[in-house]
Amino acid sequence: MTSFIPFNKPHFVGPETRYIEEAVRSGKISGDGMFTRRVHEFYEQTQGFAKALLTTSCTDALELAALLLNIGPGDEVIVPAFTFVSTANAFVLRGAKIVFADSTGLNPNLDVAAVAALLTPRTRAVVPVHYAGIACDLDALLPLAAAHGLAVVEDAAHATDGYHRHRRLGSLGTLGAFSFHETKNVSAGEGGMLVVNDLDYAVRAEILREKGTNRAAFFRGEVDKYNWVDVGSSFLPSDITAAFLWAQLENLAAIQQRRVQLWAQYRAALGPLAAQGVGLPALPDYATNNGHLFYLVCRDLAERTVLLASLRAANILAVFHYQALHRSPYFAARHDGRPLPWADRYSDCLLRLPLFVDLTDAEQQRVISTVLTFYATR
Ligand SMILES: *Cc1c(COP(=O)(O)O)cnc(C)c1O
């Protein structure tokens, strides 16, 4: 019997437990400790984000973004239907109306050309998701948002080390939200980050993240008392989380090198399936590949079901992805009824193959052979 190939396996760089021990020995493991500061400095100084704030998850970062933008009842927010629930839920929690947009036929990203028709005087924000770490069409979206005074919140959960025309994903919108969930390129188990690109929001972002207090300014000696000054919640992670994440970030280049290599090997080996009408990840000229995930778009739902089963029979776990949110049990009755055919198509036909740092070339070859054998007879 061949060994089991999981869909994902968390990658441990090595120093994670040592850094956690260091955090513990330092006597301060609450939020904004020494490892959190190191992570913030890495994103601000090495990666060039204007302001970085670690959160307990990307979900939390999106909720912080919605609070920060003062989204409320009556406001409308444009979100792709083919995304993770948190992209929309963060704004639903504030009472906003979600207006779902379709994906493009090229890849599952938001169809920016369709956004203009969705705008109303109540539209406040648009939330592009860089699916699979491949940039959404920001050349078209950013000017449209600027012309209508909309905030752009980049859901950059997949987008660590991804670029749009040489600019880091997450750095182009008003705000950006990253995920350090175990399934993402760099992990803290659970974790996330809000990046504030429009510095008008920087001070208030710190306050909302710290329960509505000016605690961060107090610890920097900028105010002499710390007080309740605004609304807020507790969005900051323990320094134990940051210590784990720091070990991963120190090793980011190696993690990315392997992930991108595995992605390229899949792309090269499975590329010929395009001739049979199987969809493969498409990289527009403004986008890069960050090795976050590799997908195929099967010709129909029945084909995907059989391919998943064939992989399973070969002891390989592949998985599908989002069920489009406009059809979800929570939202279906709230949706305005517009058909979103591409979102439906990706829900039914997209399949993700195992891709993780510790996947060996031999294991990947087994995945590739199983897929090619499946399509050889179709
Ligand atoms: C993973 C993910 C999230 C949520 O990230 P968490 O850190 O688990 O909260 C949000 N949006 C997208 C597109 C994701 O893939």
Number of strands: 12
Low-confidence stretches: none
Seen as an oligomer or otherwise, the chain set is single chain
Q: Which sheet architecture does the biggest sheet show?
A: 7 strands, mixed
Secondary structural class: alpha/beta
Listed once per kind, the bound small molecules are: pyridoxal-5'-phosphate
Spell out the helices and strands N to C: HHEHEHEEHEEEEEHHHHEHEHEH
Record the SSE blueprint.
Blueprint: H1 16-25, H2 34-46, E1 51-55, H3 58-68, E2 76-80, H4 85-92, E3 97-101, E4 123-126, H5 138-147, E5 151-155, E6 163-164, E7 167-168, E8 175-179, E9 192-196, H6 202-209, H7 215-219, H8 239-250, H9 252-270, E10 294-297, H10 301-313, E11 319-320, H11 341-349, E12 350-353, H12 361-376
Parallel strand pairs: 2-3, 2-4, 4-5, 5-8
Antiparallel strand pairs: 1-9, 6-7, 8-9, 10-12, 11-12
Helix pairs in contact: 1-8, 2-8, 3-4, 3-6, 9-12
The structure holds pyridoxal-5'-phosphate.
Pyridoxal-5'-phosphate is lined by residues 57-59, 83-84, 86-87, 129, 155, 157-158, 179, 181, 192.
